[in-house]
Design goal:
The complex is a heterodimer of chains A (about 325) and B (about 300). Chain A is built from 14 helices and no strands. Helix content of chain A is about 80%, strand content about 0%. The model of chain A has no long low-confidence stretch (mean pLDDT about 85). In chain A, helix 7 crosses helix 8. Chain A is flat, with a radius of gyration of 25 Å. Chain A is an all-alpha fold. In chain B, about 75% of the residues lie in helices and about 0% in strands. The mean pLDDT of chain B is about 85. Chain B has a single domain, classed as MetI-like fold (Orthogonal Bundle). With about 300 residues, chain B is mainly α. The chains are: A mainly alpha (about 325), B mainly alpha (about 300). The interface between A and B is large, with 50 and 46 residues.
Chain lengths: ~325, ~300
């Protein structure tokens, strides 16, 4: 198991390197002089040159890439052009908002989505199933910022129950979390339903029913457990999607999260922030994918045994070759 | 000569016979029975027609500003009301369909083409597999929203650059699906037999591999188009896509945000247009998946 995790981490490294190269290159290609974004339009050529020398902006591409890469390895993502503070500090200041929003909405999505998905699957083609399927298809078809505005219109403007913007108190978080939670529940419900429908037709479910097991235990212990792998995959995808895509909901509800910060930085041409922010979320997603892979092993012993099997095979091969030698 | 003509007759007979039994015909038959999917197809067709014939349908010019009639509620003259510049929202939504459909189908077609070729090459020529798939892994490692934002930041915010960004983010999924398909197909006996009678790689790919691996690509094509519609609306919403005064739906929602309190229809109705379009596409995509793979719908 440890070996598997270690191997997965090793496999991650080229991807991390690739992401750094792509993001750096994109920002390198960005038109406009960073010195001008720092100093403003009225800067003298001497001042501009001084900034160029300080940040090494005149160095060749590979030198700058190398410098950035080794900086990232040491946790140094550069300095923000706008505030002059380290990028990492700026990111960590906004990150908790995005993280809170993401995890709260995915949690809500899991609770609604999994329950609705299971009910839909065990009562296929019933009224409830039709309702949930229609609703979930709506959830994956509607843009999150539009759902957010509809909710604001209903709950803030018309009913005056909840605040439309802000992030100070619990009640400020209800609408944003509900918006994203609705979207998450839609995709989780769709996956739960189809995955459960596949499992429910298996022979061991019939056996369980035949021996008189209650429906609840049959569904939860035998069917749901075996339908979990694709559901976990969707949950992982959703978390990554929200870390990056929460920007829209953050914009509507004026939450000072990381996504909104990245977009604002693009408009300010503060590229170290864009670079650092994208890289940071990319790294987060890689770690989430790794965790999802590890969870697979705990949920499904077959996946775990696959690695164990490989290991024994390898050991056998090495012992045979050793004997041969 | 006689042998040749006999072959042509047999070939022709085969063609006549095949016409009714082609896999596509069967898929269409199965799709026809799925009422939801057909509903989606009809709605899409209507949206497509309204987009194509938009200049003849719209009652007002989509860019025409009429300050005497600004911020009007939906009424008999302006069915969906007017915005803060007095522009007719109904006309703008109908005309906006052109942009949405053009962006989504152009992007997804190009992405499907490039992605499928990459996947095909990766699977068919195993020496290139590692390189291509690692590149795909890297592109999939960056969440698509941020990938788009980075590309647009580098190239500048406009519709064409947004389309490039959307293409780039849609390619990896096609490559992955195509590769998985081709890897299973190329090990099957009929490929071996084609090779044994001397068929070239190109012929095997063209005649056997591509037709047999199209099913999931078609499904991904429709579902990917939904993604592109939602992403392009999102990017325009945050000001990184289509620029004003173009009547793009996402942009219209963004522009109407300030008037949500009293003139809700300015931003809610264009959003409804997005929902209807993606809903129809999703219905069609789900129907196609069931029709192309009957095992899924037992």
């Amino acid at each position: 198991m440890l070996k598997f995790i270690f191997r997965r981490i090793l496999l991650m490294l080229p991807v991390v390197f690739g992401i750094i190269v792509i993001i750096f290159t994109l920002m390198y290609l960005t038109p406009g002089d960073p010195a001008l974004s720092i100093l403003g339009e009225n800067a003298t050529p001497e001042q501009i040159q001084a900034i160029h020398d300080e940040l090494g902006l005149d160095d060749p591409y590979l030198v700058r890439l190398g410098r950035y890469f080794f900086g990232v390895l040491q946790g140094d993502f550069g300095i923000s052009y706008k505030s002059g503070r380290p990028v990492m500090d700026e990111i960590l200041q906004r990150y908790p908002y995005t993280l809170k929003l993401t995890f709260a909405s995915v949690l809500l999505g899991v609770i609604i989505g999994v329950t609705a998905g299971i009910i839909s699957a065990i009562r296929q083609y019933s009224i409830l199933d039709n309702f949930f399927t229609t609703f979930s298809l709506f959830g994956v078809s509607a843009p999150s910022f539009w759902i957010a505005m509809v909710l604001v219109l209903i709950f803030s403007v018309r009913l005056k129950l909840l605040p439309a913007t802000g992030s100070y108190e619990f009640k400020h978080w209800i609408l944003p979390v509900f918006t994203l939670g609705l979207q998450a529940s839609a995709s989780i419900m769709r996956m739960t339903r189809s995955s459960m429908l596949e499992v429910i037709r298996q022979d061991y479910i019939r056996t369980s029913k035949a021996k008189g097991q209650s429906e609840f235990i049959t569904v939860m212990k035998h069917a749901f457990k075996n339908a979990l792998v694709p559901i976990i995959t969707v949950i992982g995808i959703r978390i990554c999607g929200f870390l990056a895509g929460a920007v829209l909901v953050e914009t509507v509800f004026a939450i000072p999260g990381l996504g909104k910060f990245i977009i604002d930085s693009v408009n300010f041409k503060d590229y170290p922030i864009v670079q650092g922010g994208v890289l940071w979320i990319g790294l987060n997603c890689i770690v989430i994918n790794l965790i999802v892979d590890i969870i697979y092993c705990f949920v499904d012993p077959r996946i775990k045994s696959l690695y164990a099997l490989k290991k024994t095979k390898k050991q056998k091969v090495t012992s045979i070759t050793a004997q041969g030698v | 000569m006689t042998i040749m003509s006999e072959i042509t007759i047999v070939k022709n007979k085969g063609a006549i016979k095949r016409k009714k039994n082609t896999p596509m015909y069967e898929v269409w038959n199965r799709l026809k029975k799925n009422r939801m999917a057909m509903g989606g197809l009809i709605v899409l067709f209507i949206i497509l027609l309204s987009a194509i014939f938009a200049p003849y349908i719209i009652p007002y010019d989509y860019a025409e500003q009429d300050y005497d009639a600004k911020l009007q509620l939906p009424n008999s003259e302006h069915w969906f009301g007017t915005d803060n510049f007095g522009r007719d929202i109904f006309s703008r939504i109908i005309y906006g369909g052109r942009y949405t459909l053009f962006i989504s189908f152009t992007c997804i077609t190009i992405a499907a083409f490039i992605g499928s070729i990459m996947g095909l090459i990766a699977a068919f020529y195993s020496r290139l597999d590692n390189i291509i798939m690692r590149i795909i892994d890297i592109f999939m490692g960056i969440p698509s929203m941020l990938m788009c934002v980075s590309i647009i930041a580098a190239l500048g915010s406009n519709m064409w650059n947004m389309m490039i960004a959307l293409c780039v983010t849609a390619v990896p999924e096609f490559a992955r699906i195509m590769r998985a398909q081709v890897l299973t197909i190329k090990e099957q006996e009929f490929i071996e037999s084609a090779r044994s009678i001397g068929a070239s790689n190109f012929r095997i790919i063209r005649k056997h591999i591509i037709p047999n691996s199209m099913a999931p690509i078609i499904v991904q094509y429709t579902l990917g188009a939904v993604n592109v519609i939602l992403m392009s609306a999102a990017l325009s919403f945050i000001g990184m896509g289509v620029q004003p005064p173009t009547p793009e739906w996402g942009l219209m929602i963004s522009a109407g945000r300030a008037y949500l309190r009293d003139q809700w229809y300015i931003c809610i109705l264009p959003g409804l247009a997005i929902v209807v379009t993606s809903y129809a596409l999703n219905l069609l995509g789900d129907g196609l998946r069931d029709a192309l793979d009957p095992r899924l719908k037992q």
